[in-house]
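for ur thesis appendix - PTS system sorbose subfamily IIB component. copy paste whatever u need, i formatted it the way the template wanted (i think)
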Amino acid sequence: MLHIVLTRIDDRLIHGQVITAWTKITKADRIIVVDDEVAEDSFMVKVLKMAAPSSIKVDIFNTEDAAVTLAGEDTGERVIILVKTPKTVLDLIKAGVNIADLNLGGMGATQGRKQLYRNISISAEEKAIFKELLTLGVDVFVQIVPDANKMPMATMI
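the 3d part is after this line
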Protein backbone atom coordinates (compact mmCIF):
# COMPACT_ATOMS: atom_id res chain seq x y z
CA MET A 1 0.00 0.00 0.00
CA LEU A 2 1.20 3.52 -0.74
CA HIS A 3 2.29 5.63 2.24
CA ILE A 4 -0.64 7.97 2.89
CA VAL A 5 0.37 11.01 4.94
CA LEU A 6 -2.94 12.87 4.71
CA THR A 7 -6.46 12.15 3.53
CA ARG A 8 -8.43 15.38 3.23
CA ILE A 9 -11.92 16.34 2.16
CA ASP A 10 -11.72 19.72 0.47
CA ASP A 11 -14.11 20.50 -2.36
CA ARG A 12 -11.55 22.90 -3.82
CA LEU A 13 -9.12 19.97 -4.17
CA ILE A 14 -5.72 21.46 -5.08
CA HIS A 15 -5.34 25.09 -4.08
CA GLY A 16 -2.78 27.34 -2.40
CA GLN A 17 -3.47 26.15 1.14
CA VAL A 18 -2.99 22.50 0.22
CA ILE A 19 0.16 23.20 -1.72
CA THR A 20 1.83 25.61 0.68
CA ALA A 21 0.75 24.38 4.09
CA TRP A 22 -0.26 20.73 3.92
CA THR A 23 2.45 19.50 1.54
CA LYS A 24 5.07 21.24 3.66
CA ILE A 25 3.90 19.85 7.01
CA THR A 26 3.39 16.32 5.65
CA LYS A 27 6.49 16.39 3.44
CA ALA A 28 4.28 14.99 0.67
CA ASP A 29 5.71 14.50 -2.79
CA ARG A 30 2.57 13.14 -4.45
CA ILE A 31 -1.07 14.18 -4.49
CA ILE A 32 -3.78 11.79 -5.59
CA VAL A 33 -7.12 13.45 -6.33
CA VAL A 34 -10.01 11.00 -6.24
CA ASP A 35 -13.17 12.17 -7.97
CA ASP A 36 -15.18 10.33 -10.61
CA GLU A 37 -16.35 13.48 -12.40
CA VAL A 38 -13.06 15.36 -12.34
CA ALA A 39 -11.19 12.29 -13.62
CA GLU A 40 -13.36 12.41 -16.76
CA ASP A 41 -12.87 16.16 -17.32
CA SER A 42 -9.62 16.64 -19.26
CA PHE A 43 -9.70 20.41 -18.74
CA MET A 44 -9.99 20.08 -14.94
CA VAL A 45 -7.26 17.44 -14.91
CA LYS A 46 -4.92 19.91 -16.65
CA VAL A 47 -5.90 22.75 -14.30
CA LEU A 48 -5.30 20.66 -11.18
CA LYS A 49 -1.96 19.38 -12.42
CA MET A 50 -0.86 22.95 -13.22
CA ALA A 51 -1.90 24.11 -9.72
CA ALA A 52 0.86 22.07 -8.10
CA PRO A 53 4.58 22.80 -8.30
CA SER A 54 6.64 20.53 -10.54
CA SER A 55 8.20 18.92 -7.44
CA ILE A 56 4.82 17.37 -6.54
CA LYS A 57 3.50 14.52 -8.65
CA VAL A 58 -0.26 14.83 -9.23
CA ASP A 59 -2.60 12.08 -10.35
CA ILE A 60 -6.35 12.31 -10.77
CA PHE A 61 -8.28 9.05 -10.62
CA ASN A 62 -11.82 7.81 -10.42
CA THR A 63 -12.58 5.92 -7.22
CA GLU A 64 -12.02 2.45 -8.67
CA ASP A 65 -8.63 3.28 -10.23
CA ALA A 66 -7.55 5.16 -7.10
CA ALA A 67 -8.29 2.14 -4.91
CA VAL A 68 -6.12 -0.06 -7.14
CA THR A 69 -3.29 2.49 -7.19
CA LEU A 70 -3.40 3.14 -3.44
CA ALA A 71 -3.36 -0.59 -2.67
CA GLY A 72 -0.28 -1.03 -4.84
CA GLU A 73 3.31 -1.52 -3.78
CA ASP A 74 4.80 1.21 -1.61
CA THR A 75 6.91 3.42 -3.89
CA GLY A 76 8.42 5.41 -1.04
CA GLU A 77 6.33 8.44 -1.97
CA ARG A 78 4.47 10.40 0.70
CA VAL A 79 0.92 10.69 -0.61
CA ILE A 80 -1.87 13.17 0.09
CA ILE A 81 -5.33 11.96 -0.94
CA LEU A 82 -7.77 14.75 -1.81
CA VAL A 83 -11.50 14.16 -2.26
CA LYS A 84 -14.62 16.32 -2.35
CA THR A 85 -17.00 14.22 -0.26
CA PRO A 86 -17.02 11.66 2.56
CA LYS A 87 -18.71 9.12 0.27
CA THR A 88 -15.52 8.86 -1.78
CA VAL A 89 -13.53 8.08 1.38
CA LEU A 90 -16.05 5.42 2.42
CA ASP A 91 -15.92 3.90 -1.08
CA LEU A 92 -12.10 3.77 -0.92
CA ILE A 93 -12.21 2.06 2.48
CA LYS A 94 -14.79 -0.46 1.24
CA ALA A 95 -12.45 -1.17 -1.69
CA GLY A 96 -9.68 -2.06 0.75
CA VAL A 97 -7.74 1.20 1.15
CA ASN A 98 -6.53 1.65 4.73
CA ILE A 99 -7.49 5.17 5.78
CA ALA A 100 -7.03 5.69 9.51
CA ASP A 101 -7.35 9.49 9.69
CA LEU A 102 -9.57 11.89 7.77
CA ASN A 103 -9.09 15.64 7.73
CA LEU A 104 -12.23 17.61 6.93
CA GLY A 105 -11.03 20.87 5.46
CA GLY A 106 -13.82 22.32 3.36
CA MET A 107 -17.25 21.43 2.04
CA GLY A 108 -19.11 24.43 0.69
CA ALA A 109 -22.73 25.31 1.26
CA THR A 110 -25.07 23.86 -1.35
CA GLN A 111 -28.72 23.01 -1.46
CA GLY A 112 -29.53 20.37 1.14
CA ARG A 113 -26.47 21.09 3.29
CA LYS A 114 -26.45 22.80 6.67
CA GLN A 115 -23.47 24.60 8.14
CA LEU A 116 -21.42 22.47 10.51
CA TYR A 117 -18.46 24.79 11.04
CA ARG A 118 -17.23 27.86 9.16
CA ASN A 119 -16.72 26.76 5.52
CA ILE A 120 -18.01 23.25 6.19
CA SER A 121 -21.59 22.30 5.43
CA ILE A 122 -22.98 18.77 5.30
CA SER A 123 -26.19 17.08 4.25
CA ALA A 124 -28.09 14.48 6.26
CA GLU A 125 -26.68 11.77 3.98
CA GLU A 126 -23.12 13.04 4.49
CA LYS A 127 -23.69 13.16 8.24
CA ALA A 128 -24.69 9.48 8.15
CA ILE A 129 -21.54 8.66 6.15
CA PHE A 130 -19.36 10.48 8.68
CA LYS A 131 -21.01 8.47 11.46
CA GLU A 132 -20.28 5.26 9.53
CA LEU A 133 -16.64 6.29 9.08
CA LEU A 134 -16.38 6.91 12.83
CA THR A 135 -17.95 3.50 13.50
CA LEU A 136 -15.31 1.95 11.24
CA GLY A 137 -12.63 3.47 13.47
CA VAL A 138 -11.57 6.33 11.21
CA ASP A 139 -10.33 9.34 13.18
CA VAL A 140 -12.38 12.08 11.50
CA PHE A 141 -11.50 15.63 12.47
CA VAL A 142 -11.89 19.21 11.30
CA GLN A 143 -8.63 21.05 10.77
CA ILE A 144 -8.74 23.81 8.20
CA VAL A 145 -5.02 24.64 8.38
CA PRO A 146 -2.13 22.68 9.92
CA ASP A 147 -1.54 25.08 12.83
CA ALA A 148 -5.20 24.97 13.94
CA ASN A 149 -6.32 22.57 16.64
CA LYS A 150 -7.95 19.35 15.49
CA MET A 151 -11.65 19.25 16.34
CA PRO A 152 -13.03 15.71 16.57
CA MET A 153 -15.98 15.17 14.23
CA ALA A 154 -17.65 12.94 16.82
CA THR A 155 -18.30 15.99 19.00
CA MET A 156 -19.79 17.97 16.11
CA ILE A 157 -22.43 15.62 14.67
